[in-house]
Amino acid sequence: MRSLKTTSLAALFALVAAGASAQMTKTLTGEMRTETATVEAIEKSTREVTFKKSDGTYTVARVGKEIARFDTLKIGDKVTAKYYDNIVLRLKAPGEKDIDTKSAATTKAADGKAAGTMSAQRAITATITAIDPNVPSITFTGPNGWAYSSRVEDKAALAKVKVGDKVDITWTAAMIISLDGK
Hints:
The chain is mainly β. It has a domain at 2-31 and 83-179. Helices cover 11% and strands 51% of the residues. The chain is built from 3 helices and 10 strands; from the N terminus they run H-H-E-E-E-E-E-E-E-E-E-H-E.
């Protein structure tokens, strides 16, 4: 979910700030993406698998212990993943309690195939710690040292929020994975 933090938060902030007086919550719905990758490396002790994606880039995934067929993976195996994510950003009322939660789940395919669904959700309260109308940009900080700064295209949106305002940010991602041919 790391990419969620950097790809969509600034756009979503602009939507919430623009409608802050009328609506306090906005959802940025992600796209369903399908990716086929090849297993390039397997680190059994940490259960990390390196995949080469169709565009030639690499990504590393940690496979949970609940995936019993991890030991059947081989270099060269093809894996198909369908990925979906979204972000919800909500401007908080003053004095409202902060949140800091995360959850994840893995479900195996019912038919015994080498497939399953993984999902994760992270929700935090972040504080606007800086606004620079000249750039224009905004900086958020949150729990556990989390910090995020981004350019904001809509200068009018920045005028509707101030340093010290709090927002709840919830990232949700789900992935359906199948080991091709197994």
